[in-house]
């Protein structure tokens, strides 16, 4: 069975110091509908890490579909995801000038360039 094309994505955003505990708590029990929307959009292997010295959230995910922009538009139109973002966006500070929130025209999270990848084999 062929392996689907995978686009790797890494994004960053700042987490407000006052929101650390709440952000971690809600992500310990992400709403099922939000996860279903991501799955429908061909997002897999999604994780968010936190680096306290810089108050930095680092998200990594893989996209296995064929039309990333269209699939992300579907996620942004999902009502439960919109409610989730209305809660989480207030806990974050975007690095993107003019950004107003998740799912808007200007990206909320900053996409980070990949500069190195090792896939586990030297042969």
UniProtKB/TrEMBL annotation:
PANTHER family: L-RHAMNOSE MUTAROTASE. Pfam families: rhaM (PF05336). One of its GO terms (molecular function) is racemase and epimerase activity, acting on carbohydrates and derivatives. This is Rhamnose mutarotase.
């Amino acid at each position: 069975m062929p392996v689907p094309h995978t686009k790797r994505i890494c994004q960053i955003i700042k987490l407000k110091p006052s929101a650390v505990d709440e952000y971690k708590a809600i992500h310990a029990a992400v709403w099922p509908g939000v996860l279903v929307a991501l799955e429908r959009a061909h997002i897999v292997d999604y994780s968010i890490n936190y680096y306290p010295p810089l108050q930095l959230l680092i998200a990594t995910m893989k996209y296995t579909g064929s039309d990333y922009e269209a699939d992300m538009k579907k996620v942004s139109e999902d009502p439960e995801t919109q409610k989730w973002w209305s809660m989480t966006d207030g806990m974050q500070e975007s690095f993107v000038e003019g950004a107003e929130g998740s799912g808007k025209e200007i990206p909320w999270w900053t996409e980070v360039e990949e500069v190195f990848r090792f896939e586990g084999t030297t042969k």
